Amino acid sequence: MKTLLQTEALIKRYGAILVTDQVSLDVREGELHAIIGPNGAGKTTLINQLSGELGSDSGHIRFGDEDVTALGINARARMGLVRSYQITSVFDEFTVLENATLAALGARTHAFRFWRSLLGDREALAAAQEGIEAAGLSARTHAPASELGYGERRQLELAMALAARPKFLLLDEPMAGMSVQESAAVVALLKSLKRKYTILLVEHDMNAVFALADRISVLVYGRLMVTGTPEEIRGNEEVRAIYLGEEEIA
Ligand SMILES: Nc1ncnc2c1ncn2[C@@H]1O[C@H](COP(=O)(O)OP(=O)(O)OP(=O)(O)O)[C@@H](O)[C@H]1O
């Protein structure tokens, strides 16, 4: 499988602390790659560096054939490297469809064209409807965002990311704060998205990670300790030692 995203010796410092420390990661086209690690390991920071929300102090990020290290969040999103809920925040008074359409427009253009009817852009509307369907939210298409429950709101964020027609989805703890039933629904949803998109998933729910991931990378104190299949990670003594007393490894 071809590598779609690659980092080389990526570093982010806060003062004297190296939050990501020489991270060299490759994510293959079509895989679901999970990043796990103890609290404070630098997982969210790495996601922010990849999305372009956060600059890097050194190192490189390649996406496809391009070096995107110097590009900002919008430029990367237009290339198809999209973080869930990065395109635009959810507008409560807008419906699910309107929010997703805005996200689709935002992915294509530099500024929203409010003077045109929001739902009059056929291509954006179609992308929004696809995103809503893929995120399992079709039944709520015309509901105002303010009426959505917590889990549904997270689904809307995913629908908005999908409406941008990404190649690569960055998902930071999509199951955080969800009930057991809601988490199970997201696992099923992510299974349905596998292969259609390349996905990098940061998640603390080890059952979800081991059920979903093709490969898992373990980040500890900002360093990439090991990358392997779920079986390899489960059998890795160092990883087991780190997780002792933390989340159970499924
Ligand atoms: N803006 C900031 N300024 C200073 N330190 C920061 C900043 N953001 C994050 N950190 C520190 O960087 C480290 C890594 O944080 P990060 O949120 O990336 O970890 P994480 O692995 O995602 O943690 P968690 O699993 O708890 O979400 C932590 O020690 C955190 O306190």
Automatic annotation (TrEMBL):
SMART domains: AAA. One of its GO terms (cellular component) is plasma membrane. GO terms for molecular function: ATP binding; ATP hydrolysis activity. It comes from the Bacteria. Residues 5-246 form the ABC transporter domain. Gene3D superfamilies: P-loop containing nucleotide triphosphate hydrolases. It comes from Polaromonas hydrogenivorans. Coiled coil: none annotated. Keywords: ATP-binding, Cell membrane, Membrane, Nucleotide-binding, Plasmid, Transport. InterPro entries: AAA+_ATPase (IPR003593), ABC_AA/LPS_Transport (IPR051120), ABC_transporter-like_ATP-bd (IPR003439), BCA_ABC_TP_C (IPR032823), P-loop_NTPase (IPR027417). This is ABC transporter ATP-binding protein.
